[in-house]
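Because discrete structure vocabularies remain unfamiliar, we first show an illustrative case, written as a sequence plus integers encoding its fold.
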Amino acid sequence: MARKNYQKELNSLREGVIEMGELVHTQFERSIQALSDRDKEAAREVITTEDAINEHYLELDRKCIRLLNLQQPVAGDLRFIVSSFKINTELERIGDIAVNVAKRTEGGLPDTQTTADVLSMAKEGSTMVADVMDAYGAVDVGTCREIIARDDQIDQLAIHASRQLIRGATYIDTDATDLDPYREDAVRLLLTIDDLEQVADHATNIAARTVYMATGDDSLLE
């Protein structure tokens, strides 16, 4: 592969990862909006986008493998390709979470304080995803480090939301109430809280990978 074509392939990979980030972020935003509006039809539309996201993921996966096999890159180029490969996977997992949340919305989630807390988590997670992909595109190490520090905020929101859910259970009259619907709602909310916490983790991993890509510092990688 001639050097000019090789550089073109690297640029194409960067653009592809940025596009993947935009697709996933849009999908996640639509999933959050469907949850906020209790819109089951919108949730179903989010679910139908899964195949397109997966196809884009596989295309980037193949591109990374081709570059590694044909060019045998070293130093900065190697870090860029490997980091982009890993970031692509993190984005695909965020896309999976968007679908999970949409499926739970389709199944029905209660209008409670815990659900409001979940939406706060979701919005912060969405902002982290948008910010980290901007940082990847700009190779902005400073912003990446700030994003990593923000992960604790999501963790605290998750703890608060879980406690709200448990606190709400203490006010249920177990003698007068059919507990099955409450259990189902509680399980769906707890799974959603866990998923949204993972969105922040994936955004943090992307930030750490971008720092490594730019500087070679692997101390933030898990």
Notes: The CA atoms of residues 151 and 200 lie 6 Å apart. The mean pLDDT is 90. The helical segments are 3-37, 40-48, 50-71, 75-107, 113-138, 141-169, 179-215. The domain at 3-215 is CATH 1.20.58.220 (Methane Monooxygenase Hydroxylase; Chain G, domain 1).
